[in-house]
């Protein structure tokens, strides 16, 4: 009977060790998810402002070029949105930021969506384009988003 008790005890020990590791892993995962959520909530509005300001700056730079005076106008009156209009064609696009989903949507003459995510192992955020193919996309800096969006917009 001593052998049977030893086997049961070994089994119980292995099972308990496995369950403890699983519980610890789940607790670590939950703590990481909470940390990521807090980082997104605190840093996403700043990253949105960076993108918004960069887009307005690019519009101003283009308007300063010879023959482009007033080509692009923008309405920065709403902090969670930016509307850009081409005065020559009448086309426009709207960039909007969702604090709940940490997502930037670009609609109108240009259609794009970007998700803010925490960089792996860092305390910083990056924009990642959301595609219909669902393939992983590299991080996209604010300046590149602004330039590519305005290039597509002016080509439309």
Q: Please tell me what the overall shape is.
A: elongated
In terms of DSSP E residues, the strand content is 15-25%
- Largest β sheet strand count, sense and barrel closure: 7 strands, antiparallel
Calculate Rg over CA atoms.
25 Å
Q: List low-pLDDT spans.
A: none
Number of separate strands: 7
As for the number of domains, it is 1
Alpha-carbon distance between the two ends: 83 Å
- The side-by-side strand order for the widest beta sheet comes to 1-2-3-4-5-6-7
Q: What's the average pLDDT?
A: 84
What structural class do you assign from the helix and strand content?
A: alpha+beta
Tally of contiguous helical segments? 2
State the order of secondary-structure elements, H for helix, E for strand. Answer: HEEEEEEEH
Instruction: Estimate percent helicity.
Output: 40-55%
